[in-house]
Design goal:
Elements: H1 2-28, E1 38-41, E2 46-47, E3 53-72, E4 75-95, H2 99-103, E5 108-117, H3 121-124, E6 128-137, E7 143-149, E8 152-154, E9 158-166, E10 170-177, E11 182-183, E12 186-187, E13 193-199, E14 209-215, E15 220-225, E16 228-230, E17 236-241, H4 243-256, H5 266-289, E18 312-315, E19 320-325, E20 328-335, E21 339-342, E22 348-350, E23 355-362, E24 368-373, E25 378-383, E26 387-388, E27 395-396, E28 401-404, E29 416-422, E30 425-427, H6 429-432, H7 435-455
Parallel strand pairs: 2-6, 8-16, 17-19
Antiparallel strand pairs: 1-3, 3-4, 3-5, 5-6, 7-9, 9-13, 10-11, 10-14, 12-13, 14-15, 18-21, 19-20, 21-29, 22-28, 23-24, 23-27, 24-25, 25-29, 26-28, 29-30
Helix pairs in contact: 4-5
The chain binds zinc ion.
Zinc ion binds near residues 315, 336, 338, 340 and 417.
Length: about 450
């Protein structure tokens, strides 16, 4: 008896464990999972009925079938469906719309997605998901047209364009040039008009500019701004590095920038300063000067820049400097991205235009360097100063002193490195110092644009 009892309890425990095991299996097995498929659609509430709609369905046990249809103006149109022979855990659909849907001219469409998984849950019927979303339909591309533009853009130089852009669901608006740089326009004068300065970067061999607009539904406009382009040759200078220079200025800068520990070789220190330090300093300049206001601008009055009285040109903008040392050619290279002017020691640097100081601090090879924002993405930069007369946030007026010239940073003698930037691109300062160029390209273009806009 005692023996049988023991047997019975063993069998009982075995059955109990089997039931527990089965229940646990049902609970934890993916074949009995209870989560309905997850459905997601990439959208922002708008659709042009052209861009394929991207639908993702996923499920842990596998997708046994799905159906996608749309409803518009009371009609129902099937878009996709499948009963999978081999269930997958993820299905990505790129749904195209039959042309007849566009012919309904719907203001909105309802998209319904149904999906079922392969789970044995629900008495082997599986879990079902149904997702519905309403999309506003917009099939019209943004309307964009050039109103006025400066005639020429020279290599390394600047240009201006005024244009009209209209779309009820405008998403992005910019001017793209060869090489991919995008210029952001600012609202101008009256509703629906925009203005932007553009620049042909010095190192870009050719130039063209395109107005690009997109709306929230994915419609795209692209058109060229018919600038005439004019190539321009820039100087190439072959410079021989002397031991006196390496042991003097470079040794001093290496200590200042704390790169002395990276290399004890003067030539390597020169390379680090001329390449890595320069790159870091120019990145700061590009970041500071890429900012454009999104506020409407009614006018852009700028007078020729003349920052240093009796300043004589001592180095040109765009100079491509190739360095050699002893019998080694091209040990390093750089582009000179400003105009160097020299007058007296610690000469006064004056402002001829209104602006806001966005930086007035030390910036590596540029030394003490105030930067002034003049609006419309135009900035001026004053490098190698001995002292700055302005602080970040200051408003400057014509006749205000900005700084005194000096030789801070990577400079061999007292001078001003005068830089002009358009949305983060260094441009030829001489254009912005030239009365005739300013009138022809900036002032006249703006007044022509206003006349055209007023006539409409
Ligand atoms: Zn310079």
């Amino acid at each position: 008896m005692r023996h049988n009892n023991k047997m019975g309890s063993v069998i009982g425990t075995g059955i109990f464990l089997a039931i527990v095991g089965l229940v646990l299996f049902v609970i934890f097995s993916s074949s009995f999972e209870r989560d309905a498929p997850t459905v997601s659609v990439a959208h922002n509430g708008y659709w042009n009925l052209k861009t394929p709609l991207s639908v993702r369905i996923s499920d842990a046990s596998g997708i046994s079938g799905y159906r996608v249809y749309l409803e518009a103006n009371g009609e129902r149109v099937d878009l996709a469906q499948a009963q999978n022979a081999q269930p997958e855990h993820e299905v990505i659909l790129k749904i195209e719309v039959p042309k007849k849907v566009a012919a309904f001219k719907p203001e909105s469409v309802k998209i319904v997605i149904e999906a079922q998984d392969t789970s044995s849950w629900n008495f082997f019927r599986g879990n079902k998901a149904q997702e519905a979303l309403l999309l506003s339909v917009d099939t019209k591309a943004p309307q964009v047209s050039t109103v006025a533009h400066s005639m020429y853009v020279h290599k390394g130089g600047s240009g201006l364009v005024v244009f009209a852009a209209e779309d009820p669901n405008l998403a992005s608006l910019y001017i793209e040039i060869e090489g991919g740089k995008r210029f952001v326009p600012q609202p101008f004068y009256k509703e629906g008009y925009y203005i932007s300065l553009v620049a042909w970067p010095l190192t870009q061999p050719t130039f063209s500019a395109r107005l690009i607009a997109t709306d929230k539904a994915g419609n795209l406009h692209k058109s060229s701004v018919p600038f005439r382009v004019s190539d321009r040759a820039y100087q190439i200078s072959n410079l021989k590095l002397s031991d006196a220079f390496l042991e003097g200025k470079i040794a001093e800068l290496a200590e200042l920038f704390e790169i002395a520990h990276e290399s004890d070789k003067r030539l390597d220190q020169f390379r680090l300063i001329n390449e890595q330090v320069r790159e870091k300093n120019e990145k700061l300049i590009h970041d500071l000067t890429s900012v454009v206001s999104s506020e409407r601008i009614d006018n852009f009055e700028i007078t020729p820049f003349y920052p240093l009285k009796n300043g004589q040109k001592v180095a040109s903008f765009g100079d491509h400097r190739l360095y050699s040392y002893e019998n080694q050619d091209k040990v390093s290279e750089s582009y000179h991205l400003g105009l160097d002017l020299a007058s007296v020691q610690m000469g006064a640097i004056m402002s001829q235009n209104y602006g806001t100081v966005v930086f007035s601090d030390f910036n590596g090879i540029y030394g003490t360097m105030p930067v002034v924002d003049h609006g419309l993405g135009l900035y001026t930069l004053y490098g190698h100063c001995s002292s700055a007369a302005v602080q970040k946030g200051d408003k400057v007026h014509p006749g205000d002193k900005i700084a005194n010239t000096g030789m801070s940073g990577y400079a061999m003698g007292d001078h001003l490195h005068f830089g002009v930037l358009v949305q983060g691109i260094e441009v030829r300062p001489e254009e912005w110092m030239d009365t005739k160029w300013l009138k022809l390209n900036i002032t006249d273009t703006i007044s022509d644009a206003k006349k055209i806009i007023d006539r409409k």
